[in-house]
Structures are given as structure tokens and as C-alpha cells.
Amino acid sequence: MKNKKNSGASPTKKLWGGRFKQSTDALMETFSASISFDKRLYDCDIEGSIAHCKMLARCKIITVAESNKIIKGLKKILKECDEGRFEFSDSLEDIHMNIESRLREIIGPVAGKLHTARSRNDQVCLDIRLYLRKEIDDIIAEINRLCKALLAISQKYIDHVIPGYTHLQRAQPVLLSHHLLAYAEMMLRDKERFLDAYKRINVMPLGSAALAGTNFPIDRKITAKLLGFPEISHNSMDAVADRDFAAEFCSASALTMMHLSRFCEEVVIWNSSEFGFLELSDSFTTGSSIMPQKKNPDAAELIRGKSGRVFGNLVSLLTLMKGLPLAYNKDLQEDKEPLFDTAETVKVCLRIFTDMMKSAKFIPIPEKELEASGFLTATDLADYLVLKGMPFRDAHEITGKTVAFCLKKETTLAELTLTQLRKISKRFDKDVFDHIALNNSVDRKNVYGGTAKKQVRTQITRLTKKLKGK
User: Fold this and answer.
1) Closest Cα partner for 468 from 78, 148, 74?
2) Could you confirm whether 288 is annotated as catalytic?
3) CB 3.0–4.6 Å: which of 4, 207, 263, 405 could bond 220 by disulfide?
4) Over the stretch 385-442, which tens digit does the pLDDT of each residue have?
């Protein structure tokens, strides 16, 4: 698709130029034009125009012959846009005027009847809502794809134990699958947020005109049905003046990117030599220009970084809206670039992240290595004493003293003898060693939502059914 630039078009060539005597300043024309970014709405704009045209004919505001001629012209323009042959002009300001001007070239003055009973104000709101419906469908498909990948990895590595962390300090042993499914839960909540936002996006604003509605006897329900909207807007000023639905989309997107960014941070950490929990595929890493041994986790770092621009886009939209009086103001032209950038960023980040995870190799951690680091089963030791009748706070203190003893002797809990343990507390018996064994520690967390293998399998089954809509 090509762009044409003009150096200040005559007011008589503007579709709104009837009351103007002077040409638009050349710099002002470029400054105020939105065609450089809103041209991506061409298919939505044409889809909305075709539905509007059919409604006008059914309401006998234009003739069927006029409607057919207009629709034929619009379909020709759609083909030109799809094939990259349409020439966009800055002097025509936006996607709406560019299409209407081209339609006039193709079918003549009857093209002017298309804009009956509508304004660019309600037209652009319709375009954005149509655009966001499609974007949400695409984003949800990517979230589903990521969740399916996480479920597959979780099933594959169901026996894989890793340290769980708090404060980035080793805390308790958990299944890798349990850790990954935590992110699956987050992503499915993100999906629900997009679906919930979809309800408020899926409202048809056309017929609100500039701000007050229209004098023509249109039937908005016809247009809504043609475009698949279950509801029409109830207040014409609200319909053209607010962008809360766009901000809500950006809010859901920001939360999704926050979750991806956290996950990427862990991928970066896990991929490091210090952790070594996974190895990323060459396909999603890069090398160093000076250090030949390097394999950098660029995909994860870039996704982590791109979260900032999505957060910024949300703030941009909120700031844009916060001081605007009703109804439409030119400021609202600034809604599109952050909105478009958000949708594209979220989609590509989800897609790249899923592919990165599917190709990653998770590295088993030897049980003895886990037992030797971080006293992962210290809480199990305290729980053991509680089961022997000791109050938890006392058990907590005894276990702390046991850890201090290990640190002094440079040993681990698993390497302590029963004699050493009984010097700390007579409650310890020989069954304590089974209690603090790594895998037993994991399997005893057999409470709904816990990290025990039985519970993780339950969650895999539940999430699989949820993804299938069951």
C-alpha cells in the first residue's frame, strides 16, 4: 500500500471543505493526518461501510441500485488494499476519507450517499471495535497455544523436581510441572480478562453520528446484526467520546505482558550457568560480537523489555482521556498508535515465547545436589516434630537450631545421624529420614493445589479440559 503526500491541498478538494477559503498549511496537513497508521483499519472500515450501506437501502434512505453500486465499489477498493495497490494520501487525512475519495473516483457522485446518517466520529469507533474483536481472537488463540505447550512440557517432565524459591532463596522442593502450571493459571486468567473486555468492545456505536444521533430513520439493529454485534450503544455522546474499551484492552494486555515478563526473568535465570535448569535452543538465542563462547537469551530478554512499551501504552491512553470534555476531540486520534502497538506486541511476544519454551531443554537436577543445597526440606523437619506432638513454633525453633548445627558442621539435613538429631531433640526418631527425603517431601504436599504429583496430574487434567471448553 502506497502513500502520497501533498503540499497543502485546496479546501475545495477536501470532502469537508465547503466553508473553508484557505488551504490547509502543509505542515499542519502532515501533522494532523492519521493515514500513516490508521490505514491498517481499511478492512474494518470497508466492512462497516458495507453493512451501513445495506442498512440504508433496507430503510429506503438510498435505493437498492445505489447500495449495490456502492458495495461493488467498496469491494474493489478492498481488493486494491489487499493487493497493496491502493494509494493513500496525507491530504485526505485518514482511512475514512481515503476510501470515500477513491469510491467517488470509481462510481461517481453516488459515493457521497454512503456517508448519510453517520460521522467519522462513530465510524472510527466502529472500526476500532471491529479491529479489537479480531485482535482479541488472535491473542486468545496465542494464549491457548502457550497453555497447551506448558501442559505438554508439564506432562513430559512430571518427575522433574526443582527448588521452589521465595525472595530468590531456595525454599522447598517442587515439581517443575507445578511451577510451569502456575504460569498457565496466570495466562488463563489473562484470557478471561480479554474475554470479559470483549463483551464491552462488542457494542455497535454506528448511528451515533457526530455526537447527537441522526435525523434519518435508520435501523441500528440491522447494522448490528450484519456486523455480528449483540448490542448497540445506548448513548450517542458516550459512544463517540469514550475509549474505555480500548484502555481496558490495553490493561488486559499489560497484565499479560507482566506475566510473560516474570516468566522471561525466570527463563533468563534458569538458563544461566549459575542455575543451569534449562538450555534454550539456538533458534531463540544469539552470540556475542566479542566473546565467542556466549549464548545469550535474547528472546526472553526482548519480551521482558517490551513489557515496558505495553505498560506505557496503557498510561498513554489513560492520560489521553483524563481531561477531555464530551464529546469528540481531535486528541482521540492519538488512541490508535498505542492501541495498534499493544496488539502487535502482545501477539508476537506470546508467539515467540511459546516457540522458545517448546524448543527448550530442561536439565534434571540430581537429588543429592538438591539435598545439599538450601535445606529444602527444613519445613518438613519442623512438620515432623509437629506430628510428634510439638507446637509448631517450638518445632520451628528446633529446626532452626538443626540448620545452624549443619552450617557449623558443613553438612546437610540428609547427612545428619539420628544420634546428632536426638542431641537437639528427643522427639526425633529413625522415621525422620523418610520424612525429609526430597521426593517424599514433594509427594506429601497432597492437598488440592499442592505440588504432589497426584495433585499436579489433577491440575493438568483440569486445565486440559478448560482449554477444550469442557
Assistant:
1) 148
2) yes
3) 207
4) 999 999 999 999 999 999 999 999 999 999 999 999 999 999 999 999 999 999 999 9
d(CA 159, CA 174): 10
Q: Which three cell numbers stand for residue 325?
A: 470534555
Tell the residue number behind the cell numbers 486440559, with chain if given.
Answer: 464
Region of residue 274 (left: phi > 0; alpha: psi -120 to 50; beta: else): alpha
For residues 162 and 154, give the distance between their C-alpha atoms in angstroms, rounded to a whole number: 13
Cell numbers at 1, concatenated? 500500500
Q: Please state the pTM of the whole predicted model.
A: 0.92
Q: For residue 170, what are the β-bridge partners?
A: 165
Q: Which residue has the cell 458495507?
A: 50
Q: Which of 7, 10, 272, 288 is catalytic?
A: 288
Work out the end-to-end distance of the chain between its first and last CA atoms, rounded to an integer number of angstroms.
43
Catalytic-role residue among 167, 234, 273, 283: 167
Domains and CATH numbers, the chain: 2-116 (1.10.275.10), 121-208+233-367 (1.20.200.10)
